[in-house]
Amino acid sequence: MTGDAAATPLLSCRHVGKSFGALAAVRDLSFDVGAGEILGIGGPNGAGKTTLFEVISGLNPATKGAIVLDGQDITKHAPEQICHAGVARTFQLNAGFDSMTARENVLVGAYFGRNNRAVPTLRAGRAAHEAADAALEMLGIADRADKVTGKLPVLDRKLLMMASAMATKPKLLLMDEPVGGLTAREVDRVMDAVRAIKAAGVTIILIEHVMRFLVRLSDRIMIMHHGEKIFEGLPTKLLDDRTVVDVYLGQGASERLRSFMESTHG
């Protein structure tokens, strides 16, 4: 992390740990994410990546350590407080209200995602509708706004999750395996969506096993293993780390990724 990003971390995690009884899913993890940055997180299944997202978003609060968002300690905040503070999230599985239209799903995010609604009204209001329509437009699915969510294809449902998150007007977006199960062409479509979100000024942390996606989009990459950080640095340095190759990528995948990176950057 260099320049302004290094000087102004939007998110700071310090010695964060999360244990479930005797099992330590996240161990003494420290890192910063600069405003406007994309941090990519990779690692084997069971490395603690999704648990880290649950800790940051408040679904499973940290057992140890501190999490600071834009100068505010959110370590012990409830999930809705963290959402209202500016953290949105998408999930591995397509989350949505299947019987509602795409626009209605995004409207839920726009209405509930920024303010407490102790007594919800029957109408969302003009601001929420405008935020929902803008999010649908940004993600390129405005023409599917009136489609029933349960009948949308997988790609559109992933884009819909992103639109619902963006309707909350987040500072930080956590994306958990956004291209899992997609074709190569669909992966490229999601890449364009992530770039549009970044261009809107949103900081992004994304978890992904598709390394082409991870290295193309990330400003920095962090690799986790057994709840610990085993690498943090530029994507171009990833394949020079022997531990990453040995415990995660393997030699064959490393050689294919190197060829891809050389063809992309060289």
TrEMBL record:
One of its GO terms (molecular function) is L-valine transmembrane transporter activity. GO terms for biological process: D-alanine transmembrane transport; L-alanine transport; L-isoleucine import across plasma membrane; L-valine import across plasma membrane. It holds the Pfam family ABC_tran. Residues 11-251 form the ABC transporter domain. GO terms for cellular component: plasma membrane. InterPro entries: AAA+_ATPase, ABC_AA/LPS_Transport, ABC_transporter-like_ATP-bd, P-loop_NTPase. It comes from the Bacteria. Keywords: ATP-binding, Nucleotide-binding, Transport. PANTHER family: AMINO ACID ABC TRANSPORTER ATP-BINDING PROTEIN (PTHR45772:SF7), CONSERVED COMPONENT OF ABC TRANSPORTER FOR NATURAL AMINO ACIDS-RELATED (PTHR45772). This is ABC transporter ATP-binding protein. It comes from Mesorhizobium atlanticum.
